[in-house]
Sequence to fold (989 residues):
Amino acid sequence: MLPDEHRTIDFFSEDALPVPRLAPAEAEHIAAAHLGVTARAEELGSQQDANFLMHTDDGTPTAILKIANPAFGAVEIDAADAAADLIASACPDLRIATVLRRPDGSARRTTVETDSGPAVARLLRHLPGGTLSGPRHLSPGTVAGMGALVGKVSTALRDFRHPGLDRVLQWDPRHADRVVAKLAGHIAEPDRRAAVLDATEEAWAQVHSLAGALPSQAVHMDLTDDNLVRRPGSRPPLPDGIIDFGDVTTSWAVGELAISLSSMLHHDGVEPHHVLPAVRAFHAVRPLSAEEADAVWPIVVLRAAVLVVSGRHQAVVDEDNAYAKDALDHEWRIFEQATSLPLPVMSRLVRDAAGLADTPARTACADAPVRPLLRDLAADDITLLDLSTDADAMDHGAWTDPGTEDRLTTAALADGAAAVALPYGRPRLTRAPALSALSPATVPTGIDLRLGRDAVVQAPAEGTVGAAAPGHVELTYGTQTLSLSFPPANRPVVTTGATVRAGEDLAHLGSGTQVHIALRAADSPVAPRMVRPEYAPGWLALTADPAPLLGLPADPGRTDEKDLLDRRDAVFATVQEHYYADPPRIERGWRHHLLSTDGRAYLDIVNNVTPLGHAHPRVERAVSRQARRLNTNSRFHYASVVEFTERLAALLPDPLDTVFLVNSGSEAVDLGLRLAIGASGRHDVVALREAYHGWTYASDAVSTSLQDNPNALASRPSWVHTVDSPNSYRGRHRGPDAVRYAPEAVALLDELAASGRPAGAFIGETYYGNAGGVALPDGYLAQVYAAVRRHGGLAVADEVQVGYGRLGHWFWGFEQQGVVPDIVCVAKAMGNGHPLGAVITSKAVADRYRDQGYFFSSTGGSPVSSVVGLTVLDTLRDEDLQGNAVRVGGHLKNRLEALADRYDIIGAVHGSGLYLGLELVRDRERLEPATEETAELCDRMLDLGVVVQPTGDHLNILKIKPPLCLDTTAADFFADMLDVALTQLGHSR
Fold:
């Protein structure tokens, strides 16, 4: 019997929609006998249809055979195929699983008998690349790509009309309340069933109130991770393909976005705030109205509820459907994530993401009270205690002490404050753990007050007592609800339900009592005392600053981070790039931690500029003391410059006994080259490829890193000659063959000399930093240094990155090679963040500089710089930081090598001490650089609380060069987060 050509489904009239049962052999027969394709069939999973991948004997996919559920009529199939064709035409940049056609243009479609009745079978275009389904974490670019694609589809289908769209589907959010009511009984667990019913009721009420303003149109209604196909080879995965048009219907247009968002929530590490890039991307393509923005998250919740009840129902009626059963766990995770925050909070965040927020989240504050909240307590008697990242009270790592808030509050009361208040909305750094994979709740939604004397709490205006119990009282007045919490030993003097006048007593509190004061919109959910920064804009939009109730000014909030970044780009040359596309604002550091203004601590794995750790008290005291006394140029006579240069020279072997002081590594290399050229009388220089030495004219001339200058090799001046990077891992000569690099470099030096242009200098890092901490082949520098000297040139060692004990076993990188350079250039670590660099050479070489004129650096070797240099050397010694590099660096390298045994993407672990490199490759044989994967990993690591960045010509090496004070706990945290991120990003074997 043929299906009714004009029939469309009404889900509520169907008892069940089991998948048609066909064996692969039957599918092969249908394809060959009815659709003109001879191929092998491989069964694919589906919720309600039967799908088969058709492929040749060698496994090459040819098409998808889809046998629709018999409940779907032919007109519905026509609508699906027409919608697919329309999108393919309107969006040529997208790949669409359209129906395949015969030479005469007719669709390869037929009607076949199944165990459930006649069904439409057709062949669809196969899209290579694979879908986005599975647990893999979705990076921001992938999420935004999904949102943009959904926007394109919504735009393309806006004016599509077809009789097959007039259908009643269980997936249509317009029917979500009825679907949940019909199927909720299939949820066996009472607590889960109740949670689904309650969430559905609340979300439906919200959507129903907006329904009149929500435009309807044709929708795909299943643009989920299961049906979006990644562009082949895209890294991270980006969608450009769409399959499965079986749910095409007419519904609310905004549901297209909400359904896609819901599918993201089960992926590893994804929580609600992670889907907001999709909202922004969708809105940029197909603008949302304010009402649609408010409907997005309630529809996400409804979709999640429908998924849960439908999945449980399908697992019962279709017991052999492994696809449906396998989805149960991730459907529940979607529901948990969708309902993890109140609807008003997420709706505000959606509005913000779309740029539709009518007021900034921090403009709300308490109305001016008729009476102050605390009787006879003036605002001048209240001390505001700042615990933010910017607060001086957080200096010296005070934020790490669990007792800091109490200590500072007690001190303020002892100084005579009648009360101490911790402000509303200002992130508290004291609530940030030093190491955390999840951003902590640091943003207060109220004011915490500690009394220094007895106080009477009175009603600020006439209102109704909503709750009164030991330790708690709530008063609603106007459109706001005031909530006061205090120790339960204190009882309010009012009762629940009472009406009170302005100035009437609410509670009597003794000295030392701690009170939490919160103010929210009367119809809003109760906010947690502290919330996470990602969700703070949503929560703060529902609350208000209670400060005016105490006679204090409302907290002005902080600078908008995007505005600050825009201002930076407007005046700070953009060639001076910043880490990350959406960087945290870092305003404080402590040891191996960086602190954002959101109150989050990040583990710093990149800062070789601060070997002692950030904000080292010893350096701070030394700088402050010297700055109070004198800071001038080094032509004046003072002791610190003498003491510092003596100490520095003493760290180097003979004959390196003479020091020049400058301000940076670039200046040091530039000066080192000038010294070599001046002393040798030869102007040609030989440098290693893939190296970076600085930005001045000379240091840039010998820099050949393609990431710092893509045209580096082609744009070198004629006096610069380069030799192969002696990289024993991915260079021309690998492993034992790396011994060939040195003779080749020597040969070039000999050829230059034979041509009448002997090199005046050979410059190279003594331990290959830019390549990720790769050790030079044994004996390399000995052979090359001997050759350059044989022709009258000098050996210049760039120790800017690797010197000063970072390698652990050696203070200087050249010690690892068993050589002594003629000139050593050093910077970075010398000043622990203070601009300081040096060139150390022999007196004979230094004296030849006078042939070129005189040397002077205004602040190089200034009193402050010299004192900083001395302090760094003292602290390196006294805290045994070079020894720490050996111990912790060795432990960390072992942890990283253990990860390499489990993740094929880790090609090698380079380095020594705390200069390590984790090289990521797509193939351990061909060593194809995993450049995009490395960038994605760095972004994920930031989300997990770690700052790490790529290096190398292919940007596929994690540069691991943290402050030398890194401890084992932090090293383990780094390795653990790498493990988590690599798994979440799908790199497990």
In short: The chain has a mean pLDDT of 94. The first strand starts at residue 40 and ends at 44. The two ends are 50 Å apart (CA to CA). The CA atoms of residues 200 and 302 lie 6 Å apart.
